[in-house]
Design a protein that fits this description.
The protein is of the alpha/beta class. The protein has 15 helices and 25 strands.
Length: 559
């Protein structure tokens, strides 16, 4: 019988190709570099890789601005390189998914170029063009500034929810949609097992294009309320699934910001649009808005725990989740969640344990398994990320000092997880023999893939979930959050067929005591070297995580 939910058993490793491994020493990671490091990934124990965009692109937004959906960007290699990678990954039992970016293209895509050249071109209707002497409304793009860009020789504007070099596709056009479906199916025919789908909730725009009350000193208003998860999107998403994904037993991971919890069933239920989606409600706890980094919060562990609990309960009630603590749009988790004086290997292990045993498919972002930390940059010209540069200047515009603006960006920059992977302690960390496209972090001589205890711990976590005695519980088991613990402790149990596994993580810089019946539990994993327990309580060090199996006094297998 075909396993329609095979992806529940996977552990997925996200690769940012530009920063993973440079095989030809031009300072830029590439497909052959990924291929070279497949044995490393096999040793770690992951079962699938998600590769961020490798398609033909001017790289304004590091590949999320695609000029040819079915071409490979020359700086990454060739289609022959990709075919070789796919074949060798499959031989090692590693599946491959790619990014699917279908909300927008690059302004260098042939469709957009054809639309620019000829007002009567059918490709004009592949994008969103509006006539006028001024911008059609006051919406602000996700990367700052107006969502409208004027054509040089016409009183016409085109729409871009993101950068001006990323014009949005017009999903109202059925011809365009069929073009996209054909492209998707050709990739699936090639042998990849699915996609992570970028910014998919942006494909439906309110067709009134009405202005909104300004929410910043620039006189603009965030476009999100008019362009994200709008009524009618279900028509597009159902059609997308029917014309593509449903024809293959593939996995689809939706990047679906803006979806309220009451709609999760539509997205990930039995008849949902996707296999699973990312939930950003708890990951964005450090800022009021994921695109306004100067609006920082003083979050508490209690608040984080409540958000995580709510997220997991909604995901459990509706379908399946994609669990993560890092990705290419987030800072390093150790720097984000852990106070500076406690940013140690043990704390990195504890953070891993906190999220890895939640219900859902775990995602590991490259070098997370090394306990990597944020880079500290001194000037804005050291950043490559367009979102970081926008946030720096917007912060100053909003009245903050340049020093404060730099602090906001250092905390939250997407470049924090885009620094080159440190394979060893040599110059440029074994990533390349030449100066990399983005500077290494300062820590790489002492924190790299050689003799790394965080890596070893991630191996143990993966083995425990995939092949351990409690594998079924950790994959299939339901999740219940525990209430009888201090505010600073995140605690939950997984249970399946009468077997219970308990997770406790002290997400604070103080020691915490939890009620604990010593003789009832078997220790499965510990982020620290020691465990302090009395008869009826357990003392957790700052940022310590432990995983236990409850010992059943009577075990009857029916034999």
């Amino acid at each position: 019988m075909k396993d329609n939910k095979w992806w529940e058993k996977e552990v997925i490793y996200q690769i940012y190709p530009k920063s993973f491994k440079d095989s030809n020493n031009d300072g830029i990671g590439d497909i052959q570099g990924i291929r070279e490091k497949l044995p490393y990934l096999k040793e770690l124990g992951i079962t699938m890789i998600w590769i961020c965009p490798i398609f033909t692109s001017p790289m304004v937004d590091n590949g999320y601005d695609i000029s040819d959906f079915e071409g490979i960007n020359p700086e990454f290699g060739t289609m022959a390189d990709f075919d070789q990678l796919l074949e060798e990954a499959n031989e090692l039992g590693i599946k491959v998914i790619l990014d699917l970016v279908i909300n927008h293209t690059s302004d260098e895509h042939p469709w957009f170029q054809a639309a620019l050249k000829d007002q009567e071109s059918p490709y004009r209707d592949y994008y969103i063009f509006k006539e006028g002497k001024t911008e059609p409304n006051n919406w602000r793009s996700i990367f700052g500034g107006s969502v409208w860009e004027k054509l040089p020789d016409e009183e016409v504007y085109y729409f871009h929810a993101f950068d001006k070099k990323q014009p949005d596709l017009n999903w109202e056009n059925p011809v365009l949609r069929q073009e996209l479906y054909g492209m998707i199916n050709r990739w699936l025919e090639k042998g990849i097992v699915g996609f992570r789908i970028d910014s998919i909730t942006f494909i439906k725009k309110d067709q009134d294009f009405a202005s909104l009350p300004a929410d910043g000193v620039d006189g603009l208003a965030s476009c999100k309320s008019k362009t994200r998860n709008r009524p009618g999107i279900e028509v597009f998403l159902n059609e997308l699934k029917k014309e593509t994904f449903e024809k293959y037993n593939c996995v689809t991971v939706g990047e679906a910001p803006g979806v309220p919890y009451e709609e999760y069933g539509d997205f990930i239920g039995d008849d949902g649009y996707f296999s699973m989606i990312f939930d950003f409600n708890y990951s964005d706890i450090d800022v009021e808005s994921g695109s306004d980094w100067f609006k920082r919060t003083n979050w508490t562990t209690k608040e984080f725990k409540e958000k995580l609990k709510q997220s997991q309960e909604v995901l459990q009630a509706n379908g399946w989740g994609a669990n993560f603590i890092e990705n290419h749009d987030q800072p390093r988790a150790v720097s984000k969640f852990i106070k500076p004086e406690y940013q140690t290997d043990e704390a990195a292990k504890a953070l891993g344990m906190l999220y890895f045993f939640l219900r859902g498919t775990p995602f590991i972002y490259q070098a997370q398994e090394l306990g990597m930390q944020n880079a500290k940059r001194k000037t804005i010209d050291q950043f490559n990320d367009i979102s970081s540069i926008d946030n720096y200047y917007r912060s100053i515009q909003e009245g903050f000092t340049p020093e404060e603006a730099m602090s906001f960006v250092n905390h939250r920059s997407r470049d924090n997880t885009r620094t080159p992977f440190p394979w060893d302690d040599s110059q440029y960390g074994g990533f390349s023999t030449t100066i990399p496209w983005l500077a290494m972090t300062e820590e790489y001589p002492s924190r790299n893939a050689q003799k790394n205890q965080v890596f070893t711990h991630y191996q143990k976590m993966i083995e425990l979930r995939q092949q351990g005695a409690v594998s079924d519980v950790l994959i299939k088991g339901r999740i219940v959050f525990l209430e009888n613990v201090p505010d600073n402790v995140v605690a939950y149990k997984r249970e399946c067929n009468g077997i219970e596994v308990y997770s406790y993580t002290n997400l604070s810089d103080t020691e915490e005591l939890i009620p604990f019946e010593k003789g009832l539990f078997e220790l499965l994993l510990n982020s620290h070297d020691d465990l302090v327990s009395e008869e009826n309580e357990l003392k957790l060090h700052p940022y310590q995580s432990v995983l236990f199996k409850k010992i059943n006094e009577v075990c009857d297998n029916g034999n």
